[in-house]
């Protein structure tokens, strides 16, 4: 997989780097999914914010330290992460997941 990324992106990433990025994205997905499915939390997809009362946030963050970054800003690429990590897709071979289209948010220089 690293070879494919290197060829497409003209970079030199290692397998360990790819695994590290994959693990970080999976952790972010699971943390965010758990947060927005918790009672009293709502994700406003258009505004990209998680809505809850200050008291609900404070109580949740006493026992869950990972989602603190989502208090101000949601998970910008949640829909893509859901495609990668939802349980039904995990049954797919990894090469199918790698083939999913990825949008580059950085425009190419003219």
Molecular structure report:
Helix 2 crosses helix 4. It contains 5 helices and 2 strands. It is mainly alpha-helical and 110 residues long. A hairpin with a 4-residue loop joins strand 1 and strand 2.
What descriptive keywords fit this protein?
two-stranded antiparallel ribbon, 110 residues, elongated
Q: What's the gist of this structure?
A:
Residues 1-60 form the Myb/SANT-like domain. The protein is mainly alpha-helical and 110 residues long.
Count the beta strands.
2
Overall 3D geometry? Answer: elongated
- Helix and strand content put the structural class at mainly alpha
- Give the distance, in angstroms, between the N- and C-terminal Cα atoms: 29 Å
Domain Myb/SANT-like: 1-60
Pfam families: Myb_DNA-bind_3 (PF12776)
InterPro entries: LIMYB (IPR045026), Myb/SANT-like_dom (IPR024752)
Protein name: Myb/SANT-like domain-containing protein
């Amino acid at each position: 997989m690293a070879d494919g990324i290197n060829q497409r992106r003209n970079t030199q990433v290692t397998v360990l780097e790819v695994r590290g990025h994959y693990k970080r994205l999976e952790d972010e997905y699971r943390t965010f999914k758990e947060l927005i499915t918790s009672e009293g939390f709502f994700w406003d997809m258009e505004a990209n914010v998680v809505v809850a009362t200050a008291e609900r946030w404070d109580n949740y963050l006493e026992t869950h330290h990972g989602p603190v970054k989502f208090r101000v800003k949601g998970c910008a690429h949640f829909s893509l992460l859901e495609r990668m990590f939802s349980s039904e897709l995990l049954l797919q071979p990894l090469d199918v997941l790698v083939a999913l289209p990825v949008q580059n948010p950085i425009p190419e220089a003219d």
